[in-house]
């Protein structure tokens, strides 16, 4: 399946996500979103939605919606 919303993170965004993941800083939901976006990065691991969902115990639709929110609303709203 072709991805409609492609996640492309800047170096600064990658660093922020890595800090959240490393320190488990914030809520469980925030850490999970950081992990998901890190794996979805087209210039990084570029995992499929299915693979991310299996790795973190989410549904693929959740991953799709997170991608969409990042692309449409920006990094700060995720």
Question: Which key features would you list for this structure?
Answer:
mainly alpha, single chain, 78 residues
Set down the secondary structure blueprint.
Layout: H1 11-23, H2 28-40, H3 49-56, H4 60-73
The span between the termini is 24 Å
Bulk shape: globular
Question: N-to-C SSE series?
Answer: HHHH
Low-pLDDT segments, ≥5 res: none
Radius of gyration: 11 Å
Number of helix segments? 4
Major sheet summary line: none
Number of domains: 1
Mean pLDDT: 92
Structural class: mainly alpha
**Helix percentage range:** 55-70%
Strand composition percent:
under 5%
Question: Care to count the β-strands?
Answer: 0
Explain this structure:
The protein has 78 residues and is mainly α. The chain has one domain. Helices cover 62% and strands 0% of the residues. The protein has four helices and no strands. α2 runs antiparallel to α3.
In short:
62% of the residues lie in helices and 0% in strands. With 78 residues, it is mostly helical.
